[in-house]
Design goal:
Helix content: 25-40%
Radius of gyration: 10 Å
Strand order of the largest sheet: 2-1-3
Order of helices and strands: EHEHE
CATH topology: Ribosomal Protein L30, Chain: A
Number of helices: 2
Distance between the termini: 5 Å
Largest sheet: 3 strands, antiparallel
Number of domains: 1
Family: Belongs to the universal ribosomal protein uL30 family.
Keywords: Ribonucleoprotein, Ribosomal protein
Protein name: Large ribosomal subunit protein uL30m
InterPro entries: Ribo_uL30_ferredoxin-like_sf, Ribosomal_uL30_bac-type, Ribosomal_uL30_ferredoxin-like
CATH superfamily: Ribosomal protein L30/L7
Structural class: alpha+beta
GO molecular function: structural constituent of ribosome
């Protein structure tokens, strides 16, 4: 699993970036979600890599 933590807020960012964060299941800062390792999750994480911390568990 990817352990994804939202480190920065999305206020003032483009709508596409906000939508990607929402699709990952993140809503508030420092929220943690777990996603299965796969190409879809990896691609979404790469699009918002400046906003999140990721650990492989």
């Amino acid at each position: 699993y990817f352990e994804i933590t939202l480190r920065r807020g999305v206020i003032g960012l483009p709508k596409t970036t906000r939508d990607i964060v929402k699709c990952l299941g993140l809503h508030t800062r420092y929220q943690v979600v777990w996603r299965l390792v796969g190409p879809r999750s990896a691609g979404q994480i790469l699009k918002v890599k400046e906003l999140v911390n990721v650990r492989l568990t």
